[in-house]
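Re: weekly structure request thread

Next one in the queue (385 aa):
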Amino acid sequence: MKLRNMLTLLLVACAIQALACTSAIVSGRLTANGRPLMWKNRDTNDMNNRVKRIDAHDGCYAFVGLFDARDRNDTAVWMGYNEKGFAIMNTASYNLKCDTVPEKNMDREGVLMKLALEKCATVADFEQLLNTQPKPLGVEANFGVIDAQGCGAYFETCNFSYTKYDLNDAPNGILMRTNFSMSGRTDKGMGYVRYESEKTLLAPHVARCDFTPAVFTEELSRSFYHSLLGHDFTHDTSMTWLVDQDFIPRRISTATTVVEGVVPGESPLLTTMWIGLGYPPCADVMPVWLWDGGVPIALQGQGVENHAPQCDVVNARKDSVFSITRGNGKHYLNLSKLYNAQGTGYCQVLTARNMKAYEAGYAELAKRRAQYSRLKAKPKKRRKK
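Done, posted below.
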């Protein structure tokens, strides 16, 4: 009864949901195949996301990125990677800004990330970009980056400065961020409960060094563990309705995305972006690659509204999870639609399907890896003198 009362009281805090995200960067020494991972569970009021490949042009690298459907001019990227194997993401921070730059000149994180994908090949390149861009930058964010050399870092960045946290310096090989910055004002910002939940859920994988992309898309992005309450509602069949507050997947979560990098010496084109577009607990996971045909049609913007068909499918599933539309109903989720004793919940059905998608994706990667290896090993013909 006490637990239910606490959940009810949390509804007061639901009146305003800040834009947020939960993220992590994992060293290759903690992963099952030695390749680094970068994950972002995206939270935003833009419910319709899409994926697009941008071709190389005018000295800019080709890249694939996550865009808002309404952004028809592709001005802002919210996660992606380029042909050099450089990948970037962000989480909003709410405890860094200490200047008088007006709000109308802020929120340029997506614009900066697009520029980084166009121009940066390494983590060092991104740091140089931050140093040389005109100030103020118009950002307040934790930027996560990895590259094809196995480097990774978070850059806690505001208008005039940044603090770098290098993955090589992380004693346990992992860095995590939600919506506060370690270098920011103490106890300000948001996402502290989600941060503690993330640490708890990932601790067994850190100990076993068995990280895979599925750890994030099938576990964290579908988990209803609440660190402050000390309770995991994920498989609690005694609960039907939950208040949507401080879980990793939120009503405003619109994608779960993992960039899986390469080991040094591999072709950067083998970098993979595994994405569940739409509300993560209801999402199908698909691989995205830079080669021709590497972006599934279902993830691309289409039609008058520029929606990705797959995002529309997932949003329809989400509507049955958040089915109460009157009053404060939008803050309540029907857990039985995701997990139930019959095993028919969206999470239960989709996780099994997604594991098959991973299996097929890795089979395709194995073929491509063999192909690139043969091309690399093929002797060059000598010119006749």
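Confidence is low (pLDDT under 50) at residues 1-17. The helical segments are 2-9, 109-119, 123-132, 192-208, 213-219, 309-321, 346-377.
Next request, please.
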